[in-house]
Design brief:
Layout (H helix, E strand, L loop, with lengths): L2 E10 L3 E4 H7 L4 H8 L3 E4 L6 H15 L9 E5 L10 H8 L7 E4 L5 H14 L5 E9 L9 H4 L4 E11 L5 E8 L7 E2 L11 H5 L6 E2 L1 H22 L9 E4 L4 H11 L10 H4 L6 H11 L8 E8 L3 E8 L6
Bound molecules: oxa(dethia)-CoA.
Oxa(dethia)-CoA binds next to helix 2, helix 6 and helix 8.
């Protein structure tokens, strides 16, 4: 049976920076509150005229370059996003067209902040069943377009970005070793963007009542986030007969520094083993994990044989983790 591995990574962060000082002018908040309660110092904002697929496409190009792969080798594209350019066509179709690729299966995957983890697991299964040899997994998010810049409880948290990975098949050792993914739709009210779909179609009222923006019950989510991410790590380790010490690096979703610290405490894993870049980008939904993965790859943090675990949670609620053996040489 063929196995799957990550052959290259890429990311795209828009150049425009929105700092905590900028946020102080927009809502009743302070740099001190944001840093101490979340760990965030700044976030990136996608310029007008650009959308989710543009960030995704640029991240894919970098991942292709890192994998020394030509777009013509790509046999499928999965785009994880909750901020698609439009309802349809899928953002994956738009990325495909921008990359100049034709006649392959491409689709969007909606699992909010856990989207990249779900998509990587889907790609692993595509490859292991022998139907495909090379694919692109990309998470592209323009969360600023779903953000209510009058709601201080959410607007300080969110940012835009994209991260991608080229996944290839091998007859050798598995790079994508396995995943744990789960969801519970009973928590759907805790984190959502209620309007614009078939349940609450766009109307004058939905716009006036700001129903198209992301809504969040922050405090309730905070506790569930720590529990669900800890559960995902434990279950995945257990199913592979591994110990916490076997893990070289944990790449967590970057929703709040205090959530990451809570997970570290819960699991009794040193905070230093977690890759943290929340101060620069805030919460980019599904893009957090692949952007952190790409940074770890490019900074030479990852070396051949390292065992990584990604872990995330998000709207749905969804949560999950991937176990990855790094097979590339250290940069
Ligand atoms: O990708 C997944 C999605 N998001 C998350 O996982 C986020 C999970 N939740 C969190 O990260 C935290 O709950 C928040 C950062 C959202 C909030 O932090 P908190 O420590 O849980 O604050 P809180 O909601 O309990 O609010 C404490 C106070 C409130 O004031 P009162 O009611 O005590 O007077 C808020 O109104 O802080 C106030 N507050 C703010 N103050 C200044 C909320 N947002 C802000 C703000 N600046 N930006």
């Amino acid at each position: 049976m063929p196995k799957a591995y990550i052959a290259g990574t890429g990311s795209c962060l828009p150049e425009t920076v929105l700092t905590n000082r900028d946020m102080e002018v927009m809502v009743d908040t302070t740099d001190e509150w944001i840093v101490t309660r979340t760990g965030i110092k700044e976030r990136r904002i996608c310029p007008r005229g650009m959308a989710s697929s543009d960030l995704g496409q640029l991240a894919c190009r970098k991942a292709l370059e890192d994998a020394s792969a030509d777009p013509s080798e790509i046999e499928f594209i999965i785009s994880a996003t909750v901020s698609p350019d439009m309802f349809f066509p899928s953002t994956a179709c738009l990325i495909q067209s921008k990359l100049g690729i034709r006649n392959i299966p491409v689709f969007d995957l909606s699992a909010a902040c856990s989207g990249f983890i779900y998509a990587l697991e889907t790609a692993r299964n595509f490859i292991e069943c022998g139907s495909y040899r090379t694919g692109l997994v990309v998470a592209n998010e323009c969360m600023s377009r779903l953000t209510d810049y009058k709601d201080r409880g959410t607007c300080v948290l969110l940012g835009d970005g994209a991260g991608a990975a080229v996944v290839r098949s091998t007859e050798g050792e598995a790079g994508l070793m396995g995943s744990y993914i789960s969801a519970d739709g009973n928590y759907r009210e805790i984190l959502n963007a209620p309007a614009g779909g078939s349940y609450m179609p766009a109307s004058f009222e939905t716009v006036e009542n700001r129903c198209h923006f992301m809504k969040m019950e922050g405090a309730a989510l905070f506790k569930i986030a720590i529990m669900s991410m800890s559960e995902a790590v434990n279950k995945l380790l257990e199913s592979h007969g591994l110990k916490k010490d076997d893990i070289t690096l944990l790449i967590p979703h970057q929703a709040n520094l205090r959530i990451i610290q809570g997970v570290a405490r819960n699991l009794r894993i040193k905070e230093g083993k977690f890759y943290i870049n929340i101060e620069k980008y805030g919460n980019m939904s599904a893009a957090c994990v692949p952007v952190a993965l790409d940074e770890s790859n490019r900074k030479g943090i990852l070396g051949k044989g390292d065992l990584l675990m990604t872990v995330s949670f998000g709207g749905g609620l969804t949560w999950g983790a991937n176990l990855i053996k790094w097979t590339k040489d250290r940069k």
